[in-house]
Amino acid sequence: MVYGYIRVSTDKQSDNNSFPVQESAILEKYPDARIFSEAYTATNKGTRKVFKEVIEMLHESDTLVVAKMDRFARSVKAGVSTVEELLEKGVTVDILNIGRLDNTPTGKLMYTTLLAYAEFEASLIAERTKAGRDRVRADNPDMKWGRPNKYTSEQISHALSLLSSGLSYSLVAKKTGISISTLTRAKRKRV
C-alpha cells in the first residue's frame, strides 16, 4: 500500500508547499496513494500526530511518499532515525524531490546531508523571523503580537459584573456569547 504524507505550517499556506500542490505531486506519481495531511509548524516541540499514526500503519512492502524532504523532517536527528526505522521495517521511502531513500552508504550520505540542509533552512527562517520581530519591537515597543482580542474590555467587564452579581458562568456565557473558558481566564486575570 502507498501512503502519502502532506504537511503545511498553516492551513492558509498557499506557496509551493500548500496542500493541493503536495497532493497533486504525490497523486501524479502514485494515483492510488492514501493521503494523510496535517497543519503543523516545524518549530513546535510537540509531536506530529498524523505523521506518527502513518508511521505506525506502515508495514513491510508499503511505501511512504512525501513531496519534499523538509515536509518529512526538519531536524537531522529525527529524520535519520525515522528513515532508518522505516527502512529496517522494509518500507520504501520516496521523497519526490530527491528520490527513493535506501540503506546503502551513498543513500545514507544523501539523506543525512539533505536533512542537514532542511534543518539549516529552518534555523535560518527562525533567525530571520526573530530579527524581524526585534526590529519591529525596537520601532514600536507597544506592538501587540498574536491574535487580536475577540471581545472588548467593556464586553469582558460587563460579563464579569454579571458574574459578580451572582449569575452562573453558563448563564453569563449564554447572555453575552462569551465562552465559559474565556470568562474564567478573564476573571483570573482581574483577581
From TrEMBL:
Coiled coil: none annotated. Keywords: DNA integration, DNA recombination, DNA-binding. Residues 1-140 form the Resolvase/invertase-type recombinase catalytic domain. Pfam families: HTH_7, Resolvase. CDD domains: SR_ResInv. The keyword DNA-binding applies. Transmembrane segments: none annotated. This is Recombinase family protein. It comes from Fusibacter ferrireducens. Signal peptide: none annotated. Belongs to the site-specific recombinase resolvase family. The active site is at residue 9.
